[in-house]
TrEMBL record:
Gene Ontology cellular component list: plasma membrane
The protein's name in its UniProt record: Olfactory receptor
PROSITE patterns referenced in this protein's UniProt entry, alphabetically: G_PROTEIN_RECEP_F1_1, G_PROTEIN_RECEP_F1_2
Higher taxonomy: Eukaryota, Metazoa, Chordata, Craniata, Vertebrata
Family: Belongs to the G-protein coupled receptor 1 family.
Protein's membrane topology: Multi-pass membrane protein
GO function terms (MF aspect): G protein-coupled receptor activity; olfactory receptor activity
Gene: LOC129339143
Pfam families membership: 7tm_4
Superkingdom per UniProt: Eukaryota
């Protein structure tokens, strides 16, 4: 049944990260500087992989898609947050709130599923190297990326359906955050939300925690196999797996904190949300790049060729 009919709330008031004008201005400058430094780096990663034929392996294909997803994900909440730093009236419409919630979880889940695809790529490369070109060909890579996007879409649709069609908002409209997220919105509903909270936890918390554990177990198995193996390139493969594990922790740790516990607010919620939605997504591809000599070398060549107007 659709309980949205008759709802009196047409917009939500966002309290943001701070109510102090000087602090808001300082945070605005910090986040703008962060974006001006990190966002071009992520775009450069994508361009480097796309333009260098030596980076045509599935691993770099997935990395380029990860960078694109991270750019999209980190563009959902920050524009509104930056605008609110300079505004006295921080509001978001009901439809805008639902859109923000949808794209936040759509892109976040798609990235989570893409990490599973990247783990599969490493498994085949290490455990079945002779069949690698057959099992992880271009078509399979596109299927895995498409499945990641589709999985994220289904995940987000379920959350938005639970929030939009199963809840009614007729009273308080104040969100103690800088963006709309499912837990904060559920707290404002006019009636008992226990059923919706349980379904949200199953769709959000259990999926995140299960995926996190599966990724850790798979990479632990790969590292053990590499440790007992004498194959060529073992050190490079181990370094790649360690990089993947770092990104898994960077992405999942704040997500586990935010979505695998009861919805009652805690003091660190806003701080963790900033790292989860703004900072960490743009840093993920950078982490891969800093530990990869091939892509760093290709980046330098690309910069020299197109920015410094020199030839190789």
């Amino acid at each position: 049944m659709d309980h949205r009919n008759g709802s009196e709330v047409s917009e939500f008031l966002l309290l943001g990260l701070s109510q102090v004008k000087e602090v808001q201005l300082f945070l605005f400058l910090i986040f703008v500087l962060f974006y001006l430094l990190i966002l071009p780096g992520n775009i450069l990663i994508i361009l480097t992989i796309r333009m260098d034929p030596h980076l045509g392996s599935p691993m770099y294909f997935f990395l380029a898609n990860l960078a694109f997803l991270d750019i999209c994900y980190s563009s959902v909440t920050p524009p509104k947050m930056l605008a609110d730093f300079l505004s006295q009236h921080k509001t978001i419409s009901y439809s805008g709130c639902m859109c923000q919630l949808f794209f936040l979880h759509f892109l976040g889940a798609a990235e989570m599923f893409l990490l599973i695809a990247m783990a599969y790529d490493r498994y085949v490369a290490i455990c079945r190297p002779l069949q690698y070109m057959y099992l992880v060909n271009r078509s399979m890579c596109c299927i895995l990326v498409g499945a990641s996007w589709a999985g994220g879409f289904v995940h987000a649709i379920i959350l938005v359906t639970l929030t939009h069609h199963q809840l009614s908002f007729c009273g308080p409209n104040i969100l103690d955050n800088f963006f709309c997220d499912v837990h904060q919105v559920i707290r404002l509903a006019c009636f008992d939300t226990h059923k919706v909270e349980v379904l949200t936890f199953i769709n959000n918390g259990l999926v995140i925690l299960t995926t996190f554990l599966l990724l850790l177990i798979s990479y632990a198995v790969l590292l053990i196999k590499l440790r007992t193996s004498a194959t060529y390139g073992r050190s490079k493969a181990s370094s790649t797996c360690v990089t993947h594990i770092i990104v898994v922790f960077v992405m999942f740790t704040p997500a586990i904190y935010l979505y695998t516990r009861p919805s009652e607010p805690l003091p660190l919620d806003k701080v963790v949300a900033v790292f989860h939605t703004v900072i960490f997504p743009l840093l993920n591809p950078v982490i891969y790049t800093m530990r990869n000599k091939e892509i760093k070398s290709s980046m330098k060549k690309l910069i020299k060729r197109y920015c410094l107007w020199t030839t190789d």
